[in-house]
Amino acid sequence: MKRPYLELKDGMVKATIWHEIRDGQKHFNIAFSRLFKDNDRWWDGAYFQRQDIPALCRLANDADLWIRQQRQLESVAEDENETEGAS
Fold first, then answer.
1. Nearest to 66 by CA among 12, 21, 4
2. How many structural domains comprise the chain?
3. Would you call 59 exposed, middle or buried from its count of C-beta atoms within 10 A (0-12, 13-18, 19+)?
4. Residue 30 in 3-state DSSP?
5. What is the SS3 assignment for 40?
6. Does residue 82 form part of some domain?
7. Contact call for residues 26 and 17 (beta carbons, < 8 A)
8. 10-residue block means of pLDDT along the chain (87 residues)?
9. Is residue 1 part of a domain?
10. Is 48 a member of any domain?
11. Beta strands in the chain (DSSP E)
């Protein structure tokens, strides 16, 4: 089974970042879930309570920032590879 690229947590709310290669490019997808315990077992749910909204917003922002940083790092690496290849 494919593993997530990154998991971010804020309290009981989680953002899971996945990636896939399409058309030769890396694309990121984000899934949000809320952790809850039922019968001594932890589960992920797709429903949120009003008090979860601030955590959802923070995680969405953090995920966006992380993805932007990854794209920037990949762009720098590509530029360095092109520079080395031109020498």
1. 4
2. 1
3. buried
4. strand
5. coil
6. yes
7. no
8. 91 96 90 96 96 98 96 81 67
9. no
10. yes
11. 6-10, 13-22, 25-38, 41-45
